[in-house]
Write a structure and sequence with these properties.
CATH topology: Rossmann fold
Largest sheet: 5 strands, parallel
CATH architecture: 3-Layer(aba) Sandwich
Distance between the termini: 43 Å
Order of helices and strands: EHEHEHEHHE
Strand content: 15-25%
CATH class: Alpha Beta
Structural class: alpha/beta
Radius of gyration: 16 Å
Number of domains: 1
Strand order of the largest sheet: 3-2-1-4-5
Low-confidence stretches: none
Number of helices: 5
Number of strands: 5
Shape: globular
């Protein structure tokens, strides 16, 4: 008999208040459905256009800051008792990182700061990109809801 891993829920975090709400919701959903939880923080990684390389000092600093931010988010997170949680910091565009993480997930949870309208069209939005391109259902948590 093969052990089947539990379903996995992915939640994107960035340190914002609405991301905390998304994390709270994702923890509740993971408990409710007996799912594991992947908490993902995507941080910027500048690459040189021609070589694809990064400046070593720059990248080490960004990676260190990302780890520190993630550690702070772990420390401030609501209780995850009873939930298998993996905390990851991944370099890259948040939309692309979360869409890729959604491949084997049963749900992707993201927060939306509500920067829609024209600015949202021009700048793009992580939640909008995830809704359109994710490989699983997406729940968008908005502040005040």
């Amino acid at each position: 008999m093969t052990d089947v891993p539990p379903p996995r829920i992915v939640v994107g975090i960035d340190g914002s208040p609405v991301a905390r709400l998304a994390l709270e919701f994702a923890i509740d959903e993971a408990r409710l459905h007996g799912a594991s939880l992947q908490v993902t923080y995507a941080y910027p990684a500048m690459a040189a256009t021609l070589t694809g390389s990064t400046g070593k000092d720059y990248y080490e600093q960004v990676e260190s800051e990302a780890r520190e931010l993630l550690q702070g988010l772990v420390a401030a997170a609501p209780s995850t008792e009873g939930v298998e949680v993996e905390w990851v910091a991944v370099p890259g565009n948040p939309s692309e990182v979360l869409i890729e993480a959604s491949r084997d997930a049963v749900m992707l949870v993201v927060g939306s700061r509500g920067g829609g309208g024209f600015l949202g069209l021009v700048m793009g939005s992580v939640s909008t990109q995830c809704v359109h391109y994710s490989h699983c259902p997406v729940l968008v948590v908005r502040e005040g809801h």
